[in-house]
Write a structure and sequence with these properties.
single chain; 121 residues; Arc Repressor Mutant, subunit A; 3-stranded antiparallel sheet; 3-stranded mixed sheet; 6 strands; 16% strand; globular; binds zinc ion
């Protein structure tokens, strides 16, 4: 199986889900598209695609890292307190410019809303 096919499968999974997915979710859904998609293979593909910004890693406190496709604008996320799924909120957003405290090196920022999603209500 070609590496290209594996990567296409990962991109397809992320495109279809429309929300950030954990590595485990990518693996599970990817196996529905490509039989015998190996977990080491997925890890390697995720690492390479993240370093090339084909996919973006999103991290929330106390949560496993998730991945999504690059969006054309920054947007807030929503995490459901019941099922812990993370959704993109379709809202244009700009993070405020901040002055980092002395000695701090800020590498990213996230706006996260939480509550109960429509399927859990
Ligand atoms: Zn939910």
């Amino acid at each position: 199986m070609s590496q290209t096919r594996q990567r296409e499968a990962i991109l397809e999974v992320l495109r279809e889900s429309g929300r950030p997915l954990t590595r485990a979710e990518i693996l599970r859904k990817g196996r529905e598209l490509v039989d015998r998609l190996g977990s080491a293979t997925v890890d390697r593909a995720i690492r390479e695609m993240t370093s090339k910004f084909y996919i973006i890693g999103v991290e929330f406190p106390g949560q496993p890292r998730r991945y999504e496709l690059p969006a054309e604008c920054e947007h807030p996320h929503f995490i459901c307190r019941e099922c812990e799924l993370v959704y993109d909120l379709p809202v244009r957003m700009q993070l405020p410019k901040i002055k980092a405290p002395e000695g701090f090196d800020i590498r990213g920022g996230e706006v996260i809303y939480s509550g109960i999603c429509s399927s859990c209500r």
